[in-house]
């Protein structure tokens, strides 16, 4: 009875999230998602377009997607009222109506960036007017100043702020660093990080810090670190380190312009005419065992599916490709027996990444 009463007296602290990402060993495999920017045209107002991008970004973050590719499926015809949302300077125009592909990339890139870097890397723009109302992605590299991680995202600085040797350093210290082929990086800590490389100002970089750095709240002197590849936190320590954003001019270039050596070795296309995703999740299909992979690609269609993307792709037409399923290793239905006539792409991304989660975890080569 005493033991039972003691267990009952222990209460869970629900004031803070407990599902914090825990890095273990390095991870070599990657997961990529591709979808058309034309899905933005289905949202009628700037606010709805922004929130659509936010829902997709949340799915990418929750399921640890490493790359998102926004491709043109030939369906992004500007609306007649798009001119009302243009400015004289095209760089300052809201692009949700005139260029949905760019708009979606803009929103996804902004949300992936650590919050303290956003004002430095993203000038004020009409595309981002409603972005402040979107839910936080809160990814492992979105670190607060009091949180510790050996890796951090930062931006190279040209002029130190007033007063000290890093964020409080004098001009002579900065000039000395430049003359020795080093750069100072603001990573959101009290002190700048000195890296042995001459890097242009306002460049986003990934920095690896010493295991036991001498970082003080007073900001006394820069800390030495190294600039590493954005993939290093994932490959070396197993951290999920956000997603990269890539543009593709067509469905075929999603695959042919792959940024990973050797290309994608496991490709999945989604359609209501495919096999149940549960078959793939059980690792076996009519074609045999689902193989291990290095780089997995999951492709989602827009309002009219992937069929219209094939029709709009001149390269695929030249090759005689008639059906999108010919392009993929697996052609899957994410929700057999769906009750609604259509599943929106932002809903399909959540369904697909959840349905394929077991394949990712068990078949990705570490």
How would you sum up the global shape?
globular
Instruction: Kindly name the structural category.
Output: alpha/beta
* Arithmetic mean pLDDT: 85
Radius of gyration (Å): 23 Å
- What distance lies between the first and last C-alpha atoms, to the nearest angstrom? 47 Å
Low-confidence stretches are: 80-89, 161-166, 168-172
Task: Enumerate the strands of the largest sheet in spatial order, edge to edge or round the barrel.
Answer: 9-2-1-13-10-14
Tally of helical runs? 12
Work out the helicity level: 25-40%
Biggest beta sheet summary = 6 strands, parallel
**What's the SSE pattern?**
HEHEHHEHEEEEEHEHEHEEEHHEHH
* Strand composition percent: 15-25%
In total, the number of strands is: 14
Give structural notes.
The chain is α/β, with parallel strands linked by helices. The chain is built from 12 helices and 14 strands. The chain has helices at residues 2-9, 46-62, 100-112, 118-121, 171-179, 232-237, 251-256, 277-281, 307-311, 314-319, 345-355, 357-363, and strands spanning 30-36, 67-71, 151-156, 183-186, 193-195, 204-208, 223-224, 226-228, 244-248, 266-276, 284-285, 288-289, 295-299, 330-333. The longest helix has 17 residues, at 46-62.
């Amino acid at each position: 009875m005493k033991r039972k009463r003691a267990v009952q007296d222990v209460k869970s602290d629900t004031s803070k999230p407990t599902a914090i990402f825990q890095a273990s060993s390095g991870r070599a495999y990657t997961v990529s998602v591709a979808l058309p920017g034309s899905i933005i045209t289905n949202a009628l107002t700037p606010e709805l377009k922004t929130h659509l991008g936010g829902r997709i970004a949340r799915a990418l973050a929750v399921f640890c997607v490493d790359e998102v590719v926004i491709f043109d499926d030939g369906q992004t015809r500007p609306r007649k009222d798009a001119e009302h949302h243009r400015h004289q300077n095209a760089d300052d125009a809201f692009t949700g109506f005139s260029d949905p592909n760019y708009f979606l990339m803009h929103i996804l890139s902004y949300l992936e960036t650590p919050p303290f870097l956003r004002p430095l890397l993203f000038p004020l723009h009409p595309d981002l007017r409603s972005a402040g109302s979107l839910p936080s992605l809160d990814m492992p590299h979105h670190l607060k100043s009091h949180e510790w991680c050996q890796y951090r995202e930062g931006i190279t600085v040209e002029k130190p702020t007033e007063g000290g040797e890093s964020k409080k350093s004098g001009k002579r210290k900065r000039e000395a660093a430049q003359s020795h082929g080093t750069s100072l990086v603001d990573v959101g800590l009290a002190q700048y990080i000195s890296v042995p490389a001459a890097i242009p100002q306002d460049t986003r970089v990934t920095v690896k810090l010493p295991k036991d750095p001498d970082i003080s709240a007073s900001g006394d002197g820069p800390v030495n670190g190294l600039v590493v590849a954005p993939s290093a936190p994932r490959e070396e320590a197993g951290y999920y380190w956000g997603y990269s954003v890539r543009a593709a001019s067509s469905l075929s270039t999603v695959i042919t312009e792959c940024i990973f050596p050797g290309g994608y070795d496991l490709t999945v296309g989604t359609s209501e005419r495919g096999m149940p995703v549960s078959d793939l999740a059980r690792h076996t299909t009519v074609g045999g065992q689902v193989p291990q992979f290095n780089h997995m690609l999951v492709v989602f269609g827009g309002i009219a599916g992937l069929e219209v993307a094939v029709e709009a792709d001149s390269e695929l037409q030249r090759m005689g490709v008639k059906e999108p399923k010919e392009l993929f290793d697996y052609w899957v239905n994410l929700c057999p027996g769906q009750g609604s006539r259509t599943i929106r792409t932002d809903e399909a991304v959540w369904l697909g990444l959840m349905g394929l989660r077991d394949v990712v975890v068990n078949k990705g080569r570490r």
